[in-house]
Structure prediction request, 136 residues.
Amino acid sequence: MGDLPWLVAGFGCRQGCPPGQLHALLMRALELAGATLADLTCLATFERRIDAPGLVALAAELALPLTGFAASELAPFEPCLSHRSEPSWRHTGCYGVAESSALARCQALSGATPRLLVARQCSAEATVALACAAPT
Prediction:
């Protein structure tokens, strides 16, 4: 993935989602992208999930930073979403936490327009999406 130096995994999850479930979901998304854990730059999520034990444990296991975003910071990425989730809107004020947070972090890191590399992938308690952007 050397041509895409900014690869971010965005997560949405329930508060008690275990790190193993998040890890398995991430591995599935990376496989779909033809990427590996070594290609990841960081993890991103909704600001109220920044301290979710599963996400904190996953970030520590992978030695990657975890960044949280407010709904207002995720809103500009709504036109890029593959799916608009009404339950997500009711709980967070945005229609897609995983995709929006991955896109937001990519843009913040690279200064370039991000794109979804892997649209949201779902498990029982979480979603993950991968976004990438080339640096400016």
Notes: The first strand starts at residue 6 and ends at 13.
